[in-house]
Structures are given as C-alpha cells and as structure tokens.
Design brief:
Elements (H helix, E strand, L loop, with lengths): L5 E8 L3 E10 L4 H8 L6 E12 L1 H16 L3 E5 L3 H10 L7 E2 L2 H5 L1
Parallel strand pairs: 2-3, 3-4, 4-5
Antiparallel strand pairs: 1-2
C-alpha cells in the first residue's frame, strides 16, 4: 500500500501574508499534520494554495473549515486559491464555496 503524503511549503508574501503551498493529498491520513502545521501560523493573512492537491476528501474539507473558523476566531484572514478540478468539484458539492473565501489564483487571494 502506498503512503499518502501532503507536503506544505510556507512562503512569505507581501503585507504580513503567508502562502501555504500544498502538494499531495488532503485527506483523512494527512489532516492532522495539516492542522498541526497551519493552526499555529500567526500571519495576518494565510492563503492556502490548493493547486498541488491531487485529492481532497471530506476530512480534508473539514480541516479547511476548522482552519477557517480557528483563524476567524483570532481575527485573522484566510483564503483558498487555485483548486484543481477534483477539489473544485468537492467544494461545490459540499456547498462550501459560499462560506470559504475561494479565489482562482494566489495573487487574487492575497490581495
């Protein structure tokens, strides 16, 4: 059985914004590491670049919601950017595109 992984690269962006570039699967096997790495982030705005996510399941969606709620509770901004087609479909079916700030590109999300 192949190991499921999610790599997260944090990159500083303008105006106290950090971009988290994800690569791999955001799924049940990887959500705990995802939350452990991104919840402590203290930047004013966190943009999660989803372009490298090859698979998103309901646990991954739940982790995105948890991170959004956590940051909102700290009065910090959060945005999602550049979903791959599978991720876009999952977000649309779940109805979360109306709740979570979602953008086509990282640059739009960071603005």
């Amino acid at each position: 059985m192949q190991t499921v992984t999610l790599d997260i690269e944090l990159q500083p962006f303008a105006n106290d914004t950090v971009v988290a570039r994800l690569s791999g699967k955001l799924s049940l096997e990887t959500v705990s590491g995802f939350l452990a790495q991104l919840r402590p982030n203290e930047s004013q705005k966190l943009v999660v670049d989803m372009s490298g996510v090859s698979f998103l399941d309901s646990a991954g969606v739940g982790a995105l919601v948890q991170l959004f709620v956590h940051r909102r509770g700290q009065s910090k901004a959060f945005a999602l950017a550049a979903f791959a087609p599978q991720g876009t479909a999952v977000m649309q079916v779940s109805g979360l595109t109306r709740l979570l700030p979602t953008f086509s590109t990282v640059e739009e999300a960071a603005a």
